[in-house]
Amino acid sequence: MTISENLKKFNKELPNNVTLIAVSKTKPVSDLMEAYNAGQRAFGENKIQEMEAKWQEMPKDIEWHMIGHVQRNKVKYMAPFVSLIHAVDSLKLLKEINKEAEKNDRTINCLLQIKIAEEDSKFGMDEADAAKLLSSEELKKLQNVKIVGLMGMATFTDDEKQISEEFQKLKKIYDQFRIQSRNFGTELKILSMGMSGDYKIAIENGSNMVRVGSAIFGERNYQ
Predict the structure, then answer these.
(1) Of 162, 173, 201, 205, which has the fewest CB atoms closer than 10 Å, so is most exposed?
(2) What is the pTM (predicted TM-score) of this model?
(3) Which helix (H) or strand (E) covers residue 147, if one does?
(4) How many angstroms separate the CA atoms of 36 and 4, rounded?
């Protein structure tokens, strides 16, 4: 199937309340333009400078989502244009995003990454640290960032029960934080969980944003 056929299938299949982020990392601009011409407007990248190069070249009505781990010294490259940063895992990083957003006279939307997987390789905050950050006075001082939701990645496993339980855990945290977030002066609207291999399980457990790459663009070539 072509990229546009894959997208058509997803758009039919996904519930109306679920936003599809087409994960385009390592893919050439020609592939992204095929998706763009099929109506896709939200793309996810995991390397800031690759995303910046694509932003320079492509139409300016695209929403660019930074879905990978963020190095603080690279924030300046995406600050002029990024729509949503998915993987915020510290106050230090938020401060850097705020600083660069202010330079660009923007407010940048962010998701807190919560660690729900068992693997050590996965980044993210635990529930207690995230709650502390959301209610902190320091966050209130950051006028150019806005926490709009949570993101999480399940363990890379074939055990669907485990994946489902991890997503349920994040949904529970999200629901609790949403109630509390009114006191924090913010509103959580996005729960980003689910990728090509587990997006159906994620949607069953309350995800309203999925990050799908290989099921749209085909397998990646990392050579």
Answers:
(1) 162
(2) 0.95
(3) strand 145-152
(4) 9
Query: Do residues 149 and 192 touch, judged by C-beta distance below 8 A?
Result: yes
> Which tens digits make up the pLDDT trace of 153-169?
999 999 999 999 999 99
Res. 221 pLDDT band, cuts 50 70 90: low
Segments in 60-124 forming alpha helices (H): 75-78, 91-103
Token output for 172: 């529970």
d(CA 32, CA 218): 12
Q: Which residues contact 20 (CB under 8 A, 6 or more apart)?
A: 7, 10, 11, 14, 40, 42, 210, 212
In terms of phi and psi (left: phi > 0; alpha: psi -120 to 50; beta: otherwise), the region of 126 is: beta
What is the sign of the dihedral through the CA atoms of 127, 128, 129 and 134? Answer: positive
Other CB atoms closer than 10 Å to residue 85's CB: what's the count?
26
Non-local (6+) Cβ contacts of 128 within 8 A are none
Q: What are the backbone dihedrals phi and psi of residue 199, each rounded to the nearest 5 degrees, phi first?
A: -65, -30
Residue 55 has which token pair?
Answer: 């932003």
Structure tokens at 111: 């998701």
Residue type, 47: K
CATH level 3 topology of 3-217 = TIM Barrel (3.20.20)
Average pLDDT of the chain, as a whole number: 94
Q: What are phi and psi of 17, to 5 degrees?
A: -85, 0
